[in-house]
Design a protein that fits this description.
By secondary structure, this protein is α+β, with helices and mostly antiparallel strands. It has 11 helices and 5 strands, in the order αααααααααβαββαββ. Strand 2 and strand 3 form a beta hairpin.
């Protein structure tokens, strides 16, 4: 699966959206000087018009309209107004357009219609289409009404309407071009995600086919060999065969069992199954309690945290092998499995203590005689591959095995 970001989308799609937002921000920042120039042009035009700005009557209206227009325009060309949502932006654009209509009504022969046209442009480029059409139409109607009330001819009203429509159409096509570019990048990112998923699906299907072949051929053959070796061992015992022969059969049986376990693990990995780890320690110990009747206790020290998959698997296999040895050689001993989370490494300790006054296990009890004794060697090799180590040996009261891995 494609890598997923914190917002639930793939990293590739999230990056495409981020690029589009950054590009839009750059474009709007590049037009910021034009917004400042627009304010200057409207202010100069109003100052030279009649009536000019003042503090009483119509001049006061001109002053207030200029202040409203300049303030709204400055808000719109800021970087963070987009984060406030469409409603806030619509309110600011409506204030800008209303100020433009007021200027057109107060100074009918000035160039202040530019203010209303700029508000239409802002509406189309920033707002959803239907809201932009409604707001742009309202501003255009206001400009038409102002021109009609001030004695403008029908040609003048028509020219204002056409200007508003032209500004709106140009803004719409520019906005659509920008949106199309962003949509194209988004679709390309989604296409890459789909292609990656398709490749992964094909790989999983191929791995599943190989896993099925391995299971059908290798695992079945090893299972049959294990059964035959068990029969051979029983025949050797009945015939009182030499110890060397029985040891050879035990060694072959151990190798077959290891091969079968590794084959099943390989098949599971090929099928994408999750490999066991320290999170499955408790079910593992419970199985030894129920199946082998061992007295096993699990203890955890430190702050639990996730480990690399290979290290976690090595600890799990180590615990499995150590408990198998307890069942083989000391099935009546109380055993403690201690998992210690450290700052830079995690340690697993399996220690059994000789039970006081415990009866000796009967001949052939537990798993005595099963296996070839390479468990600790294989465990050490697995740990060394992941940068870990193994220590084992007798204690004053029993036997201890310590395994540690980085993490």
């Amino acid at each position: 699966m494609p890598e997923i970001s914190t917002n639930g989308e793939s990293v590739r799609v999230d990056a495409a959206r981020s690029r589009a937002a950054l590009r839009l921000g750059r474009q709007r920042r590049s037009l910021r000087p034009l917004g400042v120039a627009l304010i200057a042009v409207v202010v100069v035009s109003a100052a030279n018009g009649h009536p000019g700005p003042g503090m009483h009557g119509k001049p006061l209206g001109v002053t207030l309209a200029l202040c409203a227009f300049a303030g709204a325009t400055l808000l719109l060309i800021r970087d963070h107004l987009d984060e406030r949502g469409s409603a806030i932006q619509a309110a600011v654009i409506a204030a800008m357009g209303g100020a433009g209509v007021a200027l057109a009504a107060l100074q009918p022969r000035g160039a202040t219609e530019l203010a209303g046209s700029a508000a239409i442009w802002m509406a189309v480029t920033r707002l959803p289409l239907m809201l932009a059409v409604a707001l742009g139409g309202g501003i255009t109607a206001g400009l038409d009404l102002a021109a009609a009330l001030s004695g403008g001819s029908s040609a003048t009203v028509l020219a204002i309407t056409l200007l508003g429509a032209l500004v709106g159409l140009v803004a719409y096509f520019l906005s659509q071009g920008r949106a199309s570019q962003a949509q194209t990048e988004l679709l390309l990112a989604q296409l890459e995600d789909a292609r990656e998923q398709q490749l992964r699906a094909a790989a999983v299907a191929e791995r599943s086919r190989i896993a099925s072949e391995l299971h059908d051929v290798l695992a079945h053959a090893l299972s049959g060999a294990a059964i035959q070796l068990q029969g051979a061992r029983m025949l050797a015992e009945r015939a009182h065969a030499e110890q060397q022969l029985r040891a050879a059969i035990d060694r072959a049986s151990e190798l077959v069992k290891d091969g079968l376990s590794n084959a099943r693990q390989a098949v599971g990995a090929l099928r994408g199954e999750e490999l066991p780890g320290i999170s499955q320690l408790e079910p593992l110990i419970a199985s030894f309690r129920s199946d082998m009747h061992l007295d096993v206790t699990l203890k955890i020290a430190g702050n639990p945290h996730a480990l690399p998959a290979e290290g976690s698997l090595a600890l799990y296999r180590g615990a499995q092998e150590a408990l198998t040895n307890v069942a083989r050689y000391a099935p009546t001993d109380p055993t403690t499995v201690l998992l210690t989370y450290g700052y830079s490494q995690t340690t697993l300790t399996v220690e059994n203590r000789h039970a006081e006054s415990a009866p000796a296990p009967p001949s052939g009890g537990g798993l005595t005689g099963v296996g070839g004794g390479r468990g600790l060697t294989g465990m050490r090799e697995r740990l060394e591959r992941v940068g870990g180590s193994l220590r084992s040996g007798p204690t004053a009261t029993g036997w201890r095995v310590e395994l540690d891995v980085p993490g």
